[in-house]
Amino acid sequence: MIRSMTAYDRKERQGEWGKLVWELRSVNHRFLDVYPRLPEDLRFLEPAVRERLGRRLGRGKVECGLKFFPAAGAVPDIEVNWPHAERVLTACAALAQRMSASAPLNPLEMLRVPGVLQETAPDLEPVAEAALELLDEAVDGFVEAREREGAQLAQVVRDRAEKVGQLAEQVRTRRDIVNAQVREKLMARVAELDANVDPGRLEQELVIIAQRLDVDEELERLATHVAEVLRVLERREPVGRRLDFLMQELNREANTLSSKSADAETTAAAVEMKVLIEQMREQIQNIE
Questions:
Q1: Handedness of CA 158, 164, 170, 175 (dihedral sign)
Q2: Is the CB of residue 190 less than 8 Å from the CB of residue 202?
Q3: Most buried in the list 31, 241, 270, 275, measured by CB within 10 Å?
Q4: Which pLDDT score, from 0 to 100, does residue 239 have?
Q5: To the nearest whole number, what is the mean pLDDT of the chain?
């Protein structure tokens, strides 16, 4: 299945811990380049995120963002650090004894001492597990979006490749007509010279001209490359680079055909081929 490198998908999930939202978007790129954007508390998920995306995607610059909205009632537990509080009390008693003064300790003042109160870190394991499950769902939708757009791109490339093949066949069917026209023009010029010309030498010149203008090999290679493009479009794997290479080969043959052209219709066909090849190449830049 042909996939586009341009896609977008969004998935969210609500739980007792709050809400998670994944957003995935990508554009074309020579390789797979993943940019995870995770909340600080869930940054430890980055290796797993990269592994999941690398397993499902082949190419593209992928922005992968996660947002976490904790539940309104989910506040961290506050506990007294009793060992630290005992050390503070001991220090206060020692200081009061040395100063020969004493004063009752206010519990609120004790709680303001750094380190006496501590927050218990929330259990993020259920959140992390739900985030990875939701990521898998998001990647499923992301891949489906790529495949839908890829199918459209493949059809565009397929239509234009078939048109190139049709133009090549039209040029092939005109070869005898073109050769006859070249021969007729040469004979007319010889007649204008009003001079005795060796028939054998004339035939040699006609053969040389015919060889110089012969495009059978170019037409054969064009047909072969078009058939390969259509075959590659049926593969179920990343094919963007292979298609890009085939566009280079098609363009080379179309240029040679144009340079060897001996009539206006062949030239027009070669120009139309180059336009179609460029249109295919532009679409292929977005194929994975």
A1: negative
A2: yes
A3: 270
A4: 93
A5: 84
Over its C-alpha atoms, the chain yields an Rg (Å, rounded) of 37
d(CA 247, CA 283): 11
- Which residues, 6+ apart, have CB-to-CB distance to 133 below 8 Å? 13
Q: CA 195, CA 205: separation in Å to the nearest integer?
A: 16
User: What is the predicted pLDDT for the residue at 94?
Assistant: 77
Task: Evaluate if residue 220 carries a pLDDT over 80.
Answer: yes
Tell me where in the chain the CATH 3.30.230 domain(s) lie. 7-73+126-145
Task: Give 188's pLDDT tier (boundaries 50, 70, 90).
Answer: low
Q: Look up tokens 């380049």; give the residue.
A: 33
CATH topology of domain 7-73+126-145: Ribosomal Protein S5; domain 2 (3.30.230)
pTM for the full model?
Answer: 0.70
User: How confident is residue 132, by pLDDT bands cut at 50, 70 and 90?
Assistant: very high
In this predicted structure, the answer to whether residue 250 has a pLDDT above a threshold of 70 is yes
β partners of residue 62: 26, 34
Strand partners, 80: 117
Cα separation of 281 and 243, whole Å? 8
Give the alpha-carbon dihedral of 126, 132, 137, 138, to 10 degrees.
120
Q: Using CA atoms, how far apart are residues 62 and 25, in angstroms rounded to an integer? A: 6
